Model the fold of this input.
Amino acid sequence: MRLGLWVLLAGEVVTAMSACLVQAQVPYGPGGVPHPESPPAVGGDLGAALRELGPFRVIPTLMVSERYDSNIFAFRSIGGQQWDFVTDVFPGARVIHSNDYIDGTLTAQAIASVYVNNPGLNYVGAQGSFTTVFDKMSEKVIRGLSLRLNGTVLYYPEQPSFVAARSLQSDFIRGIQARRNNAISNSTTVQAGYVVSPLTQVNASYSFQTMRFLGQTNYGDGVARLPLFNMTTHGATGGLTYLVLPNHTIGAAYSFRQMMFGTSVGDELVGGAFAGRPFSVHGVNATWSGTLGREWRAEIAPGLSFASQVPDRILWTVNAALHWTRQQTSATVSFSRGLYPSFFGEAGLLASNVVGGAVSHRLSQKWEVSLGANYAMNTRSGTGIGTTRLRFESININGSLRYLVYRGISVALTGSHGDFTIEQGATTFKYDRQVGMLTVTAEWE
Done:
């Protein structure tokens, strides 16, 4: 797997809807590096012809990258050639539609990766996302009601893990998964809000997530393959926010998640005790968000999560972020702690702690540079579920330099370094991974 345990900065479902997490449609790029921001679209006769379709706007996209990966297996050294040069091609399109009732966006991409030294790892896949806003229609039915539906689907032999903070599939990314494994996952979320008064708003959501592993790659290295557990997750949230000052909002929320583990894929070495059994997690939290002067913005959501599984346990949780923006520069630091499912090695729950920071600076209209770093610690200690020692730790540093060649065409140079540790029982795996990538992105409108 090309996942590399990259650190996720999101909180649990109830806090993932807070302002500190910005949604991204399909945030994953080759080698587990987040996509550079999409440039403005290319103009021309093609765009004029597509605009004649009416309220539908079809924007073809293409991303081509060449990358060096020091650890293509995203695992410890197994005696074979770990490094390789990989060519990634992402053809796709974005469809935007708007009428008197809805506003919607649909994004789809095919994926093809070709390895120079390991052609047996070549693969094709697909990823997509959609967002539909029903505010125009719901406002006509009930004044003050907002409604939206969004989702993602991913068929990826290198399923991302600890990749990005901006994702609805936080349960699956914040869990752990080592080595390449074929999988298909999807997530669908319905969000609703109702303005009770100019100062008060009620919010609610429901999410449905699934992950199915389609088998494991046998590398012939003699290393035992740890089991992977299929998962289905139902989640619901409800809360109230109140505007106490013009720039300060407080609130309270409740969340519920039911995580159901299916049978494992791979050798049944450990973790079979909880296969096929559901876990239920109840959470409550308080929220505050506000602006601190002209350049600072912050939010924090402390709370408690209760895992209703023998033995029952309570875990303190938090999702907090501080943002700074000045002219051409922006920076963010964040910390989150929550309960997430472990579907690699053992089926159970993990107490996940993630801290990170990022800064970006626009050097000019054409040049932009960004840097980021994060640290994650996922452990079963404190959850009270399972007896085998289970700990996942990762450290990641990444950076990118982007140049706008022409309207709609950009070139980005990205790089990352990660150190990873997996402790399971008396066994410890440690490895690192470096990825360097040159990417050309184009959009036509």
